[in-house]
Amino acid sequence: MKSREEEYREIFMVEALEYYDAMSRHISELERNPADSAALNELFRLMHNLKANARAMGYPAISEVAHRMETIFGLIRDKERTFEGNVVPVLFTGVDTIGEMIRAVGASNELPSADTLLANLDRLVNGEEPVLEDQPEADDDDANRKLELSDLVYIQIKKLDHLMNLVGELIIDRDRILTLSKESDSPALQATAAHLFRISDELQYSIMDVRLVNVGSLFNKFPRVVRDVAAAEKKDIALEVDGQDIQIDRNILQIITDSLLHLVRNAIGHGIEAPDVREKAGKPAQGQLTLAAQTERDNVLIQVSDDGAGINVDSVRRKAVERGLVGAEAAQQLDDDAVRAFLFEPGFSMAKEITDISGRGVGLDVVKLAIDSLGGQLRVSSTLGKGTTFTLVLPTSIAVKGALLFELDARSYAIPLMHTDSVVSLQPEDLHVVGGLLLAEVQDENVPVVDLRRLLHNSDGPLPPANRHELQGRQDIIIVNYNNRKLGLIIDRFLRQQSIVIKPMSKPLDTIDLFGGVTLLGSGQVCLVLDVPALTRLFLAKRP
Questions:
Q1: Within-domain flag for 244
Q2: How far apart are CA 323 and CA 300, in angstroms?
Q3: What range(s) does the HPt domain occupy (predicted)?
C-alpha cells in the first residue's frame, strides 16, 4: 500500500509535468507573438500554481525558480519589461530548468543547481543585462532532447464505474461456467474454467485497487471546517486527524462526505461544551475532536470522537417516550445501546435551541440512511461527562460483497456479511416466549427471534404471538445486527458463504424495501439479497 507521501508526490508529479508541458507550449507561442496576452497570462498562472504546490510538497528549489519566473512574467504583463533580446533565452532556460527539476523529483535524484539561472532572473528584475553562457551547437544535447510522457494518467471515475460493472457481469458468467465445468467430464473445460476464475479474480481486485483512495483526501478538508464551525459556536476546539493513509473505494468516500461533515458539526454543536462550562466541570477550556480511520478485517472504520459532555441516556429515553417512539414502561427495560439507537430516528433531536449548526431535526437519521445504502453500520458509544464516539463501519468496496447464502421454501437468499453477527442451530426447547416474542439466549444475550417466512409473507397487521410448540426439530437461525439491535431469523438451512455481485432490482420489484438487490448464482439461479435494515424496521413495526 502506498504511503500518503508517495501518493501526494505522484499527484504533484502529474500536475507539475502538465504545467511544464503547458509552459513550453505557451513560451513558444509568446516568442512567435510577444503581444499574445493569453499565453502570457497562462505562463504567469502556471508559475504561480507550481510555486504554491512545490512549496506545499517541500521542494523549495522548484518553488523559488517558479517564483522568480512568475515575477518576470508579471513585469512583462505590466509592460515594465518586454519579451525580447536576452530576456528570451533566460526564460527558456528557466522553463527547461523547471522540467529538469521535476524529472529529478520523479526519479528521486538530487535536483540540479539553479544558481546561475536565479542570478540572471534577479538581474532581469533589477533591469540589468543577464550573463549568458555560450549557446551549444545545433547538434548538441538544449536539440537531441528526448520527449517524455508521464507514467500516470487521470481517469474519470465514471469510466472506472463502467469497467467495474462489466467485471461484475464477467464474474457472474464466470461462476456459471465454473459450475458447468464441475458437472462436465471434460478436463480441458475444467482447466479453462479454473484459469478463467484466476484471471477474472485478479482483474476484479486490480480494478478495485485502482478505485482506492486515501481517506486523507477527505480528512484534510476538515481543519478549516472545524475552525469555522467552532468560531460560529464560540468554542475552542483542537482537531486531531489520524489514519489518513487508510484506503477505501472513492465512491464510498464520496457518499459519506456529507455524513462525516454532519457528525463533525454535531460533535462541535452538541457534544463539546462551551469553554466556561468545561472549566467548571474540571476540563480544559479547549475541547478535543478526533477524526480517525483504521481497518478491521475487510472493513474500514472511520471514527468521530469528542471529549464533550457525552449522551445523557435518561434524557434520550424521556425524549423517545415524549415522541411516542416507545412506551414508558418498555423504555425502562431498554439497555443504553438500545436507547441511543433512538438518536437515529427521523426528526429526533436533543438540541435545546435551533441554530445554524443543529436543532432542526434533520441529522443522524440521514447519516444512518447513507451508511445503510453502502451496506455499512453506524455505531455510537458514549460516557456521560467524558465524550462520544460515532463509528462508521464501511466496506472497502461496494462492488463485491461477502454474503451468507441460505435456503427458504426451496429458494436461495443472501444476507450481506456486514450485518451478519452469527449463525446458530437450536432446538425448540432452547427457545422461550416472553410477551409474545420468541427469544433465544445467544452469547449471554436474549435475542428476539422470528420465522423469516412469516416476516416476508405477513404484509398486513402485526405478527401473531410466537408459539414455541409450532417449531419442529432443529432450527437454523441467522443472527443479524442493525443499529445496535440484534434479530434472529429462522431459515430452512444454511448453504455457504461467498462473494457476490449485487445488481439493482428491476421495476416493479425495486419498490420492495425488504430486498437490497439480486445476484446470480453459479447455477444460473437468481438470488434475492435481503435488506437487513429494512427487515429490522419491519420486525419492530410488526412485533406483538
A1: yes
A2: 34
A3: 1-105
